[in-house]
Amino acid sequence: MAEETVLPTLHNCVESKEAWLHLLTPQMRGVFFEQDFHSCLRFNLCAHKSFVWARYYNKPRKQPSTSVHRVEQDHVWPRPPFGLICLNVDMAVSPNTGMGSAGGLFRDNDGRWLMGFNKFLGITSPLFAKLWVIYISIKVAWDNGFEYVQVQSDCLDTIKLLLDPNRVCSSLSLVRAIDLYRRKCWLTEITWIPCDANKPTDNLAKSITSLPFVVSILEESPDYLRPMLAEDTSVSLY
């Protein structure tokens, strides 16, 4: 009953059509209304062309800005747009030993903890540590079925590499590997945030408890992070 009445209604009734006309771009309208709704669903799920999300995804993106933020907002965690999961990432490299570590945490739009991870990277450079943490983070996101993800990083130089129009032929293999992952059937965006807005992840990256080179998944937030996470939720920006 639901399959034969509800789904066609979402596609064909007058009120639904008016809603779709507001959501779809002109180029998408013909494809959407010429196909039956089941074909639209398959197209949506298999071809990474969700009509609502594609309209969002195709909007001009703000490039990472090097402009100075207002001081009172430098420490404030920016919530992701509604429907996106926030993935904060950070890394640490010891200037004395060259040993690096990575950390990341997943939160919903309300700041609720979903999961976290950290990983020992071994001897590495700051640039490669920044790339490694993003690669590991999006792999963890993909493996756990997070389909709409906003990656927040305070590493502006790395973000520029990952948003470069020529990233597909970058001389850095990690840049190419990250770009390949992002081309899978999901939505990911990468955005810059100030260091002071990324403190929980910075602490997570520096608190390695796992075996070398093993990704340690944290289902529950560690006690030492909870005050910072609570502060983020109370003062975060939309």
UniProtKB/TrEMBL annotation:
InterPro entries: RNase_H-like, RNase_H-like_dom_plant, RNaseH-like_sf, RNaseH_domain, RNaseH_sf. Pfam families: RVT_3. Residues 88-207 form the RNase H type-1 domain. This is RNase H type-1 domain-containing protein. The lineage of its organism: Eukaryota, Viridiplantae, Streptophyta, Embryophyta, Tracheophyta.
